[in-house]
Design goal:
single chain, mainly beta, six-stranded antiparallel sheet, three-stranded mixed sheet, about 15% helix
């Protein structure tokens, strides 16, 4: 285990403003088909043209490792709506997003986010992640969290790392 810079997901100064979990509105998308990765889940995908003429991809999934999910993908932006997610699950997702290797992360290294909210149960959470010349995923995610009364606090976290001392290439016969 090594210590490195990371973030804690904490309640904001005014406290959390989270909404209770909700069901997916199945009328928002048709047709619903069995999800490829999970026979017990249904999925629906649409590609509507927006008012500005650009395309966006809307994906709904009735079950995932983080509960029911709605994704809206646009150029330089992703909106993730989790209908019933726990705070530890949200911290895991934030770790994945912030560790993807852009200018906001440590050159592709793991940017660990730990749950320090103290909030139990499942919640309805919407996270917007944008990447533009003036906006990074970290700033847009911080805005989304602030709207829900949450924030990312810089901290030092312990991360398990695998260290490889050396590698020897042994020739093999073809």
């Amino acid at each position: 285990w090594v210590k490195q810079p990371g973030y804690s997901l904490v309640a904001g100064k005014s406290g959390p403003k989270l909404r209770p979990p909700v069901e997916i509105d199945k009328a928002a998308c048709t047709p619903w088909l069995p999800a490829p990765a999970d026979a017990n889940a249904l999925s629906c995908v649409t590609n509507p043209v927006t008012a500005t003429g650009s395309r966006e991809r809307r994906s709904y999934l009735t079950a995932s490792k983080n509960g029911p999910l709605h994704l809206v993908s646009r150029p330089h932006a992703l909106t993730e709506e989790f209908f019933a997610i726990t705070m530890p699950q949200l911290s895991e997702i934030l770790t994945e997003v912030l560790s993807s290797g852009g200018a906001y992360s440590a050159g592709g290294e793991l940017v660990q986010v730990t749950d320090q909210t103290g909030l139990a149960g499942r919640w309805h959470v919407v996270i917007e992640s944008r990447t533009t010349e003036t906006d990074t995923p970290l700033s847009s995610i911080s805005e989304s969290l602030a709207a829900m009364g949450l924030r990312l606090q810089r901290t030092t976290v312990e991360v398990e790392k695998l260290v490889i001392d050396s590698v020897d290439k042994v020739p093999t016969e073809n």
